[in-house]
Amino acid sequence: MKQSKLLSVVLIIATMLFILSSSIAAATCWKGFYYLQIDNLNLIEETGLTREEIKTAYSEMVDFCNGVKDEFSVGKLHYSESGKDHFVDCQKLFTLDLRILGISTCVLLLWAIVRRFVKVRSSLILGHNAGFWGAACLLVSALVLTGLGSINFDRTFVIFHTLFFPGKTNWYFDPRVDEVINILPEVFFMRCAILIVCVLLLECTVLIVSDLVLRKKQKEKQAE
């Protein structure tokens, strides 16, 4: 069976992109994660809005950011053109993540299907497959970034926006004008970050453990 190093690199990159994009999508697409926190964040008391008004505003905002709807809206809440422009920028990032998720999923699924019919396999690196290395590399990176971010989340929050919205200041919302920020306290974004990390760690752990178990079974079989 011929082994391909290039195929290994492609699969490692596809694995990393799939894990990262799916972890982000868990936070950006799962509306229920936000709905579960409405009471915990005291949003009804803090904003004077009803639960349904809060849910409608959030749902419309998320649908716009994910490209589900073309026109920006946040229920009955008021917003400025500057605030709207920020969500247009967010839409570009959200939809980019979904495209990356779609492409990486297709690559991995396609390989899972065609590998049965071709005489080429991805090369093992130090005895481990591409899934293991993709997960391991991403896991180490995530742990380092999480450690740095946990030191000062406020600073990390600012750095994130500076990097992904270069030259823009429209993410500094005035709650009197862009009322949507009143239903999006910073602690919610922190919890979104925690959700992303948790999903990423889970996916990485599954791939790493699966590879280790497979390697162990193969060694036991060879020893028989």
What is this structure, in a nutshell?
The chain has 224 residues and is mostly helical. 70% of the residues lie in helices and 3% in strands.
Chain-wise SSE layout:
Layout: E1 2-4, H1 5-29, H2 31-35, H3 43-47, H4 51-65, H5 81-114, E2 120-122, H6 130-151, H7 153-164, H8 186-223
Question: What does this entry look like structurally?
Answer:
It is a single chain. With 224 residues, the protein is mainly alpha-helical. Helix content is 70%, strand content 3%. The chain has helices spanning 5-29, 31-35, 43-47, 51-65, 81-114, 130-151, 153-164, 186-223; strands at 2-4, 120-122. Helix 1 (5-29) crosses helix 5, helix 1 (5-29) packs across helix 6 (130-151) and helix 6 packs across helix 7. The two termini are 23 Å apart. The mean pLDDT is 90.
